[in-house]
Amino acid sequence: xSKIKDFLKSPLGTALCAAAACLLAVVLVWLAAxxxxxxxxxxxxxxxxxxxxxxxxDEANGAAQTFDTDNDLLAMAFVFxxxxxxxxxxxxxxxxxxDTGEVLARSTGDMANIVAGQYTGMGLxxxxxxxxxxxxxxxxxxEYTGSGRLTVxxxxxxxxxxxxxxxxxxxxxxxxxxxxxxxxxGGFLTRFFLxxxxxxxxxxxxxIYFAMRGRMPLHRLVFVLVLCFGMLYSFxxxxxxxxxxxxxxxxxxxxxxxxANMLSPDEWRMGNVPLDMTYRREHDFDPLLxxxxxxxxxxxxxxxxLFTTTPDSFDSHTALEELQTDRNPTLYLFSAAAVFLAYVxxxxxxxxLMLGRTANLIIFALLAALAVKAAPFGRRVFAAAALxxxxxxxxxxxxxxxxxxxxxxxxxxxxxxxxFGCKDGTVLPVRLxxxxxxxxxxxxxxxxxxxxxxxxxxxxxxxxxxxxxATKKAAYLAGCVLLALSINRAVLVTSVAGSxxxxxxxxxxxxxxxxxxTPAAAVSYAATEAADNRTLHAAPAAGDGKTSNxxxxxxxxxxxxxxxxxxxxxxxxxxxxxxxxxxxxxxWVQALQEGDVTAAVLGQSFFFSPEEVEHSSLTDDEFMSxxxxxxxxxxxxxxxxxxxxxxxxxxxxxxxFKSMFxxxxxxxxxxxxxxxxxxxxxxxPLDRNVLIKEIETVRTVRDSQSTPSEEDQTxxxxxxxxxxxxxxxxxxxxxxxxxxxxWVRGLVGGSLSYSSLDLAWFWxxxxxxxLWYAAVPAQDVPVPGxxxxxxxxxxxxxxxxxxxxxxAGCLVWTPTYYQTVYGFQGRYLLPVLPLFLLTCLxxxxxxxxxxxSACTLVCCLCVVNAGVLLNAMLAVIAR
Length: 879
Fold this sequence. Notes:
Elements: H1 2-9, H2 11-34, E1 41-47, E2 52-53, E3 63-68, E4 73-83, E5 89-97, E6 103-110, E7 119-128, E8 135-144, E9 149-154, E10 165-167, E11 170-171, E12 178-184, H3 188-213, H4 218-236, H5 245-262, E13 278-280, H6 287-290, H7 296-304, E14 318-320, H8 333-344, H9 349-374, H10 379-386, H11 389-395, H12 401-420, H13 430-446, H14 451-454, H15 469-487, H16 489-499, H17 546-552, H18 563-575, H19 582-593, H20 599-607, H21 610-614, H22 620-632, H23 641-649, H24 653-661, H25 664-671, H26 688-702, H27 718-723, H28 725-748, E15 751-752, E16 757-758, H29 761-775, H30 789-812, H31 833-840, H32 850-877
Helix pairs in contact: 1-2, 2-3, 2-32, 3-4, 3-32, 4-9, 4-11, 4-32, 5-8, 8-9, 9-10, 9-12, 10-29, 10-32, 11-12, 12-13, 13-15, 18-19, 18-22, 22-24, 29-32, 30-31
C-alpha cells in the first residue's frame, strides 16, 4: 500500500492520475452532451418566402418546384398549411433531375405529424451527390385519408426567376418555400471531440510530469505548454473566431499579396492599399469558415481542408472591399511571412490561415519564455499570464495582440531585470539593453495606450547605461514618440478635430463587434442557366440587318446615364432583351454600385460568354456598335465606321472591347452614375452564372463586416465630454453596472471569441485564484527584491495609466447615443497584467519557496486549460 501511495505522489503517478481524470471527464461529457448532437445539420435556403399559401393540393398532381443547387441533398423541408382540419394520410416526395427526368430520391411522411406554419423536414431515402449547376425538380403528392387538405407556403411572385412552380398541374407566379439539408455532422463530432480531449489529456500529463520532476527550467516548460495548448485553442476556436480576427487576417493577407506582387513578373504594382480594401488570392474564400460564429461545421470545414492546395499562382490577387486594421505592418510581419510561404508552395486557404496563426503562436511562445527567464522575480506571474486561456486564444490567432502581448511581457521582464536585477554600478550588457530598447520601440506605436508601459525604460538608473546615459534615454524616447506619432497620426488628427467640434470622424480603430448601420440588404440571386422567361426580339441571324436595326431602335430611356440603364443596354445590345426581371436588374445594379463587379467584367460576361465565344450572334460591325453603345452611349459605327473597322483589322474583338471600357470617355460617363469601369477578367470566356456565385460569396463574407453610419460618427470626443459632463458621468455608471461582468470574464478567458462564448464561472474563479497565487511572494525571495518605494509607485502608475488610456480610447469612439462605453474589454489589460500583479498587490501573505509553488501553479493551469477547452467545445456544440 505504501508503494502505491509513493507512486501516486511521484511525478509519473500524479501525472497519470490527472490525465486519467481528464480522460474520464472527456468520456462522460461525450456520453452526456456530445453524442446526442451527432445529427446536427446544415441547410441551404432555396427560398425562405412563405408570405402566402397555395391552393389545396390534389392527389393527382400536387405541387412541384424546379431549383438549382451545387450542394449534396440529404433532406428537404417545406412550410405547410392546412385546410378543413389536420390532413391525414401519407405525403410522397419525389426528387428528380429536371433535365433528364431521372428519379434521384424519394421520401414518404405521415401528414398527421405536420405542424402548420413552420418548416417540416423529410429525409431522402437516397443521398444525392451535388454537382455544379445541377437542375432538380421536387414534387409533393398527398394521399388523403380524411377530410383535411394540405397547402404549401410560397412567395407572392417568383423568387427563382428561371424556375417554375406548379400547383395541381398549373403554373403559379411564385416560388415554393424550400430548405435543403446538404451536410450532417455525423460521427465527425465524436471523433473531433474525443481527439481534442485526448490531446488535452496528454498535454496535462506532460505538463504535470515535467513540472513535478523539476528538471526542465520553467521558461522552457512555459514555451512547450504555450505551443501545445495554443494549437488546441487554434483548432477549437478556428480562424476568424478570435476578436476582430477577420480584420487582422485581411491585413496579413494583403501584406503577403503585396510581397508576392513585388516579386511578380507583371508590370502592375499594388502600391499603397487603402484600409477599406483587402487583397487575397482568387480562391481564398470559405464562407463557412469565415463566419466568425464558430459551429461544429467550422471544425469540420477546417479539418477537411487542412491539407488542400490551390490552383492560384503565388502572385494571384483579387481586390475586396473588406476592412483592414491600420497602417502599421510591424505586428503582422510574421503572420504575413507564413501566408506568403503558403503562396509560394500553392497551399490552400485553410493551410495558409493555420500557418499564419502558428507563426504568431511560435513568436509569442518565444517572447513569453524570454519573459519568464529574464524576470529577476515574479516568474510565476509571467508564467500564469502566458498560460491564461484568453492569452492563449489571442496568441494562436492573427490578432496583433499575439505579438503585442509577447512584447509587453518580455519588455516588462527585461525592465525589471535592468532596474532591480543588477547590482549598483553594473553596466547593462548589450544583450540586455538592445532587445529591451527594440521591444519598447516596437511596443510603443503598436497601440498608443501602452506608451506608459514603454516609458518604464526611463526608470532604469543612469548608471546601468555607462557613458551618455541621458542621450541614450532621450534617443529611446524620441524613437518611441516619433514612431508612434507617424504611424498613428490619422487617429490623433481625428481626435483633435473631434475636440474642436468636427463630427465627421473616420474610424480606424480596432472594433470588436461593430454596432454601425447594416448595409443595404443584398438582392438575392439564384445562379441558374439562362431561360427564355424574358421578352426577346426575334433571334436574328448574324448579319441579316435586323440586329443593326435593333441598335438604331434602342429605347430612348436607355440613353439616360444611370446604373440601371447601363445594365439594360448590355441586355439589349448583346442579347436583345427588352424586359428584365426586376430582381435580376436590381442584383446587377447593386453589384456594380457596391464594387462586387466592375463594368468591364460584367460586360465581358455578356460579350464573351461561353455561348458568344462558341457561336457569336453578332457580326464584327454589330459587335463594335454594341460595345460602343454600352460603354460610350453612342454608336461609333454611325460616325466612325472606317476607323473602327481599321482598328479591329489590326487587333481582335478583345482589344476593341478593352479600348471601349478603358477610355476616358467611358470613365467619365460611368463615374456620373457611380460605376467603376475597372479592368477585364483573365477568364475568356466568362460564364455569367459563375460570376453570380462569386458575387454571392463575396457578399456572404462582407455581411459579417460593418460600416459606420452618420450618427455613429458623432462620438464622445474630448470637446463633447467637457460640455456634457453629467451625461458622461451617467454613461460611466451604466457601463460599470452592465459591463463589469464581461470585463472580469474577458481578462482571463471566461468569455472567448467575440465575447460570445461564455464559460462556467467556476473556471473564471479558478483562474483568478491562480493569478493571486502566482502574485503572492515566495518565502525564499526577499521582499526588497520586488519593486519598492518610488519605483513601485511609478510602475503601478504606468499600469493604471495604460488601463485608463485604453478605457478613454474606447470612450472617445463611443457614439453619443450609446448607453454604455463601446468596445472596452478585459483583454485590453492583459499587456500590463504582470506589472500590475508585481506592484499593486499586498505582500504580507507569502507562499512556500519558489520552485514548489511554480510546480503547483503550472499543474493547476494545465488542468484548468483542459477544462476550459472542454467547456468551450460544449458551448460551440450547443449552438
